[in-house]
From TrEMBL:
PANTHER family with a match to the protein in the record: TYPE II SECRETION SYSTEM PROTEIN I-RELATED (PTHR38779)
Keywords of this entry: Cell inner membrane, Cell membrane, Membrane, Methylation, Transmembrane, Transmembrane helix
Biological process according to GO: protein secretion by the type II secretion system
Species of provenance: Desulfosalsimonas propionicica
The protein's name in its UniProt record: Type II secretion system protein I
First-listed, main subcellular location of the protein, grouped into a coarse class: membrane
Family: Belongs to the GSP I family.
Length: 142
């Protein structure tokens, strides 16, 4: 056999690495995927906050309406506040106004209209409801 043969023998591979172009292309693909994953994570967090708000806000607004129903005389006009340490960042505004409907044969029906707005101070989300509450009459109707 020839002693000057420099080729690669059977079963041996060349010690060749990746080219610079292959490394740059793979880094570009990895960077694109990572940016997409980070953006998706941010959207997921934002949607989670929105879902949490629209799950909690109706409950808080209804609890405020229940308070107004129980003590309607003390809630006339506009008021605002927060929901305390149990629901940090949630604030409310209420407006309670007397309303009446005139009926030709039966006179009039008096009730209160309560508008409740629930906001979150840092998320910028708003939930509003309006409820009609029967007014407390001093004299009973026949």
């Amino acid at each position: 056999m020839d002693d000057h043969y420099c080729g690669i023998g059977y079963g041996q591979t060349a010690g060749r690495g990746f080219t610079l172009l292959e490394v740059l292309v793979s880094l570009a693909i990895i960077a694109t995927v990572l940016v997409s994953i980070i953006r998706l994570q941010g959207q997921t967090i934002s949607m989670n906050e929105t879902v949490r708000f629209y799950s909690v806000a109706p409950f808080l607004a209804q609890s405020r309406v229940a308070q107004i129903r129980m003590e309607s005389d003390s809630f006339m006009g506009e008021d605002s506040g927060d929901f305390g340490a149990d629901f940090p960042g949630y604030i409310w505004q209420s407006r309670v106004q007397p309303r009446e409907i005139n009926i030709e044969d039966n006179g009039e029906i008096n009730f209160l209209e309560a508008g409740i707005t629930v906001r979150h101070s840092s998320w910028g989300l708003v939930y509003e409801i309006t409820r009609q509450i029967s007014a407390k009459n001093e004299e009973s109707r026949p």
